[in-house]
Amino acid sequence: MTSTQDAKAPAGEVVLEAIGLTKHFPVRRTLRGLFSQQQNAVHAVDDVHLTLRRGQVVALVGESGSGKSTMARLLAQLYPRTGGDIRLHGKTTHVRPGRQFRTYAARVQMIFQDPFASLNPVHTIRYHLTRALKIHHHAGSTAEDLESALHDLLGRVSLTPPERYLDKFPHELSGGQRQRVAIARSLAAEPEALLADEPVSMLDVSIRLGVLNLLRDLKERLNLAILYITHDIASARYFADETMVMYAGRMVEGGDSETVTQSPAHPYTRLLIDSAPDPDRLTGVGGSVEDQGTGEPPSLIHPPAGCRFHPRCPMAMARCTTDLPEKIEIGDAPGHWAACWLFDEATVAAETPGSAAVKGASV
Ligand code: SF4
Fold this sequence. Notes:
By secondary structure, this protein is an alpha/beta fold. It has helices spanning 4-8, 68-75, 99-105, 115-118, 125-135, 143-156, 163-166, 175-187, 205-222, 233-239, 257-262, 267-274, 345-350, 356-361; strands at residues 14-26, 41-53, 56-61, 83-88, 91-92, 108-111, 193-197, 225-230, 242-247, 250-256, 327-329, 337-339.
């Protein structure tokens, strides 16, 4: 198995883009709702823009219910979108089940949070990997070809010697080894992009770093574009080139990981960082944002008007309750932006002089 196609492609080349991606899940009508004209919907993802490039990791950070896992499933085409566009190498993609989906999945693979649930417990590792190789036509034409491809896959995820793992069942492996098998199965497709949905959050703290290092190594060796979904902003700093912060279905901040994690601009990002007090720790067990005493995420059936964070925001101004904040360049580093009125000079100037919000703008 080779990755000639991947190795030749220039690093930084755009692989996958979300443009104004939107997903609303219709809510089943209650008896009273049957007489209402209005069909409610969960606004899980609204107008999200995101770009994945070869040889780079983008971290998508947010608390539970922020819409980040829905984003991964939309990009994997496991859910149909309500609006917006998904482009693979600049071309709009609408994938139907069947052969079209398999062709797309060969280029864009997903890694799930729970490796135990994603591997069938009654089948061996050999079965899982052989099946993936055959589906994607990388099993070769002879038994030797297949054996060599299996060894290559396990070698890529550092499960060596391969003979020790091939005929084991998932329950005979540790959590970290299972996740490595799940990653190897994704690699069997020779993808260009990996969508990793909380890939280490169910693993023991002591082995998380090893799996993240493996993904980083694969990114470099195979020139992969990786979306890393996490609630742990400390690990985003360690692992990702770029970090995007999502709140209640909308992107609120983005930029290079060092800037976003060391000089966060949006009040929600600051709150996330405060809830993970040790940035060098990769535990993901810091206090939750709710623990910081700023309330809970809003209902996504009736999201707040204006800035969705305003009911929890200690810096909220009058305009925040009515107008959706635009994406504003911060200016401290190239590409660093926040969707927050605090960075709009005209808005801050219009607010009452001396208010907490106005003072906060200069933080
Ligand atoms: Fe807070 Fe207003 Fe900024 Fe939203 S726009 S984060 S409410 S200051």
